[in-house]
Design goal:
The protein is of the alpha/beta class. Helix 2 crosses helix 8 and helix 6 runs antiparallel to helix 7. The strands form 2 sheets. The protein has a 5-stranded parallel sheet with strand order 2-5-1-6-7. It has a two-stranded antiparallel ribbon with strand order 3-4. The protein is globular. Bound molecules: adenosine-5'-diphosphate (ADP) and cytidine-5'-monophosphate. The site of cytidine-5'-monophosphate has 11 residues, from loops.
């Protein structure tokens, strides 16, 4: 049940990568669903390739001092909380093989801090974030779209563990934010993006089969990609074959 056949079909008739472009993977899913874990498992298996991981969180807007005074009323789970225009311009540059500078967002002070992060072009670029499949312009750049699916109770438990127990945030505050913003926004904006996924991974941490299939698929696509670099004419053959 990890393959969403409907969208897989659409993906299968897409043209192959042009020789110089990186392979873009989007990993979406609710808070604490295991997205970071999935990205690390994919990256570990692809150790022989240049892989770059970019977190959508880096593109949160810095909050002004006025908004910071009422930070508990701010919805960090709404699409408008992210500077998607800036993210798109970074992705376009990476697509053209150019290095980019991305913001360094600090979750504790809710602002961008120095130093910014320099990202070099890579073979594979993994984009991770709750709303990475929300914007159609971002989706159009992705060669593979993944949604990490986990039970809401499990996610809430992990979030409480992470924020209240590990990071020392007030537990009432964590639960209040969850019920006022995180859960409603998950239902309104994150969950509806599941339909755009090529692959849906349940119980990501234990799902080695899903990770193996994903890595195998990436290797196949990159193999075609490398062949195109060596034998440009084969690129045309692949295009014809796939269509
Ligand atoms: P996300 O990136 O979606 O917020 P993470 O991958 O950071 O999620 O995981 C959130 C928390 O849950 C982390 O503390 C992580 O250690 C824990 N976690 C992730 N996957 C599992 C799993 N399969 N079993 C138990 N804990 C997990
Ligand atoms: O890693 P994860 O996917 O959980 O990160 C996204 C979450 O981070 C969102 O659910 C949002 O509520 C939370 N967040 C926060 N404070 C910020 C920025 C994001 O609690 N300053």
């Amino acid at each position: 049940n990890i393959i969403n056949n409907h969208t897989l079909h659409i993906n299968a008739i897409k043209a192959p990568l042009s020789p110089k472009q990186p392979f873009f993977i989007g990993v979406a899913g609710g808070t604490a669903s295991g997205k970071t874990n999935v990205c690390h498992m994919i990256t570990t298996q692809l150790h022989d390739r240049r892989v770059v991981l970019i977190n959508q969180d880096s593109f949160y807007y810095s909050l002004s001092d006025k908004i910071l005074q009422k930070v508990n009323d701010y919805n960090f789970d709404h699409p408008d909380a992210f500077d998607t225009k800036l993210m798109l311009s970074c992705l376009e540059k990476l697509k053209c093989g150019q290095p980019v500078t991305i913001p360094n967002y600090d979750m504790n002070c809710h602002k961008r801090i120095e130093p910014e992060r320099q990202v070099q072009p890579a073979d594979i670029i993994i984009l991770e974030g709750i709303l990475i499949l929300h914007d159609s312009r971002v989706r159009d750049l992705l060669n593979m779209k993944i949604f990490v699916d986990e039970d809401s109770d499990v996610r809430l438990t992990r979030r409480v563990q992470r924020l209240a127990i590990e990071r020392g945030r007030n537990i009432e505050n964590v639960l209040d934010q969850y019920s006022r913003f995180v859960k409603p926004s998950f239902e309104d904006f994150v969950l509806p993006t599941k339909k755009h996924a090529d692959i849906i991974i349940p119980h990501a941490g234990e799902n080695d089969v899903a990770i193996d299939l994903i890595v195998q698929n990436i290797r196949t696509k990159l193999g075609q990609h490398d062949m195109c670099k060596i034998y440009p004419n084969i690129f045309v053959m692949f295009s014809t074959f796939q269509i």
